[in-house]
């Protein structure tokens, strides 16, 4: 039988137990080390990377209280936070072992053990170790990618396939003068994309002029975009250049272009075709050299079908089309964004908040984010301002409850999900599954898709 590639360390002051463990385990795993003195643990862990550590709860200096076991468990996790620790304990110390699991141990083994159960527990622990290392590796890779992208693309953060496609498009298109149309919901970062295109273009040293077309009335449209001469209308007290002239040589970003009326679209199209503007009150056209970037959250194709948007104008503005995904479509970016804004706002407000808890990340990942990245940014800023702890918790995130969720049957009882936050819902489901299995932790954990250690941590968190 082929040996399972794994490095196992057994720490116990009972030499007979160490011999028995070594005899059994070396038949199944490629490397098995034993250690009688826990004082040697720090050096061992720094020299070797063990996949699983079996640790006795009590040593000769402290036969019954388990204090030494807790001490060395804490030391192991300080040296290697991803360590998989299985506690070796006598039957009478099960309650203490459960406490240790809540403190970070993966599981516990009762002695005298059943060889089959011990091997099954070790194989399960090895699978967990592999998953932990893969997650840590992925997080590390994503963090490097995110830092590299931030260096090149500023505030834009993302490692999801959709965002990588956006970044690749920016790199290909930025150096050209092609007109770009950016499509996406409110709050997805359309202006950030426009600024990044400008910053990576040959016009980067020239002006970037942004215009919110949705805020312009028909009366102000021509004056704002094309300029006016003194006396052209009542308040025209002096000659004034419009946004097209201000952007000459640089980039003009027209946001919310879908909000323009048909007459305004016609006037814009005329200027884009001729690349000349005529100030209001003047009859002398002026040539302008701009790179045009437009954006909208409106369905332009549908608007064309309803005669609400000019097809010839769409042809002019969308030489290249960039579609920005909604935040709910790229959940893998939420944790990166949360940590990015944590750094931004802890520096801004001089707060000592070091991390976002896994439960807070879980809540953020499950939330729908109707306001997209802008809503997440505001949620993180508010949380940083109000939080008094070193780690942000789910209750620090004041997320909107406006999204209604259908009612759901759980073990015959109806839970109205729009009346529960995620923590309350999780607590209710755990309680019901425990009741279903008469308090059997192993069966409840299996049904919930959790390890026993994870379930114990939730039981302690919710006081169940």
Automatic annotation (TrEMBL):
The lineage of its organism: Bacteria, Pseudomonadati, Bacteroidota, Cytophagia, Cytophagales. This is DNA-binding transcriptional response regulator, NtrC family, contains REC, AAA-type ATPase, and a Fis-type DNA-binding domains. The modification 4-aspartylphosphate is found at residue 56. GO terms for biological process: phosphorelay signal transduction system; regulation of DNA-templated transcription. It comes from the Bacteria. It comes from Siphonobacter aquaeclarae. Keywords: ATP-binding, DNA-binding, Nucleotide-binding, Phosphoprotein, Transcription, Transcription regulation. Residues 7-126 form the Response regulatory domain. GO terms for molecular function: ATP binding; sequence-specific DNA binding. Pfam families: AAA_lid_14, HTH_8, Response_reg, Sigma54_activat. Residues 156-385 form the Sigma-54 factor interaction domain.
